[in-house]
Write a structure and sequence with these properties.
Elements: E1 4-12, H1 15-18, E2 27-30, H2 37-46, E3 50-53, H3 66-72, E4 76-83, E5 91-98, E6 101-106, E7 109-118, H4 121-133, H5 135-153, E8 174-178, H6 184-198, E9 201-205, H7 208-214, E10 221-224, H8 231-234, E11 239-243, H9 251-258, E12 264-266, H10 272-282, E13 287-291, H11 297-302, H12 309-318, E14 322-324, H13 340-367
Parallel strand pairs: 1-2, 2-3, 3-4, 8-9, 8-13, 9-10, 10-11, 11-12, 13-14
Antiparallel strand pairs: 1-5, 4-7, 5-6, 6-7
Helix pairs in contact: 2-3, 5-12, 10-12
Length: 374
Amino acid sequence: MSKVIMGQIYEHKQTKKLIHHIPKGAIAFVWHEDLDCVSVNGLIDCGVKAVVNGSTSMTGRYNHSNVLTLLEAGISVFDVVNLKAKDEILEGEEVLIIENTLYIKKEGEFCELAMIAPYDEEVIFQLKGLARASYAQRFDDFLSNTIQYAKKEQMKFIHNPTLPNEFEQLNEKEVVIVARGGNYEKDLAYLKKSFVKQKLIILAVDGAADGLLKMGMKPDFIIGDMDSVSEESLMCGAILICHQYQDGRSPASERVESLGLPFQLVSLIGTSEDMAIQAAFWSRAKHIYLVGCRFGMKDFLEKGRDGMASSVLTRIQAGDCLTDLKGIHKLKQNRTFASPRWLKETEQSLNEVIGKVLIEGKGWLRKKGALRHE
């Protein structure tokens, strides 16, 4: 018997914006090639019951488990094969999914909206195999792109840039930069006490400000394109630093200005994460800790980038004043092994075993007439 899914459907061209307003139990209609980890975690947190993708959720270009993560969370995933013309963005319409067809309710009747293809473990297994087969070529292309652009951009990292006066407070201070990389909230939960106790200056990159505030940690700065951060976070009292592109455009400043909030512009090369690291470095921060920042081929392919020249140059420049804490929450599973109670119990057990071995060993040695070796 085929699985039937029914509910209201909500659509947005940008998944990170859709998760800000989609209600729990709804069906998400996204346009997101190769669903990334952050979007998938957001959709799960929203409690969606299904995801319908106008693009390809898993292309096989590179190996990832993001679609599988949705399936394991009980969320069905479909790609649109053939979409019939629709007049406007879907916003709460009632839909029905039966087998490979998506129906939408119009004038009291369900009409076909699209032919769709479901994902299952077998499909994902085949796509992972495709990704493994093309890995060598993908890696070569990515590395070539990175080296090519790094050579073009390296001169822009030599001269001290002009920064807003607000960054002077970073001088000789320890700074933490938080971005919305995969599982960044788990890392924050693990590190929260240390950050609060040491009173580190916190720079949030875009939507990471929402995660910080949700955990009771107010960012001192919010920096970036301001396209994935909520209005509530923008109004939290943090210093707002809007990313200005090399061509002079700044969509971030347009949004912040429309809210009537004060802000500063910064034009540095690279991603918003790169910009935050560079700003802290040139402000002579004593040390810079990174949480949730992206680095590596998979991270950048998820972002639709074919290289990471600026990020490589940024990390080289910051050098030994930089500590990347990405994934540190994984240490938590081993913390119990270092607890005082465990150590005491282990010591007692070892003493008992050692004592037993010595007693039994002495008996064996006596039998062999080898007392001289005791």
